[in-house]
Design goal:
144 residues, Rossmann fold, 5 helices, alpha/beta
Length: 144
């Protein structure tokens, strides 16, 4: 299930540039909340496998700490400057990342948001766990 979800995040980012010029290998920027968190280490492994399967290059870069939105903004801005073909992000702060992501959209870079929402419209997709439903399922499945 987790591997399928990681591929889904990456495939969704790929959809954003499917109509682009196909003469060069596409580059997708992936910006996790934190590079050292176990969840994002797992996501990174899935992204690497998907990049191989889908024949695209990945720029994986994120802050070391989940609360470092300033560093995440710098990374997003660098990816905009690099003109990545698509961007996938798990935002550290739903408000702080609005301006850089709007800059990406204005630059024509499609965005997939995963794991944590951002207060913007216009992204290609949003992929996250429905924590309420997951909690209900866990409660139903719990064995005493």
């Amino acid at each position: 299930m987790m591997i399928a979800r990681r591929h889904l995040v990456f495939a969704s980012a790929c959809l954003g540039f499917s109509a682009c010029n196909r003469s060069r290998q596409k580059v997708i920027g992936v910006v996790p909340k934190a590079t050292s968190h176990l969840f994002f280490v797992s996501v990174h492994a899935g992204v690497e496998q998907a990049s191989h399967d889908l024949h695209v290059n990945v720029l994986w870069n994120g802050p070391a700490d989940e609360t470092d939105y300033t560093r995440q903004i710098e990374i997003v801005d660098a990816m905009i400057t690099r003109r990545v073909d698509a961007l996938a992000i798990s935002a550290t702060d739903e408000r702080a990342l609005v301006a850089p992501l709007l800059r990406a959209l204005r630059a024509g870079i499609p965005i997939t948001v995963f794991d944590s929402a951002v207060n913007i419209d216009g992204y290609v997709s949003f992929i996250a766990t429905d924590n309420y439903s997951a909690g209900c399922t866990a409660a139903r499945l719990r064995r005493f």
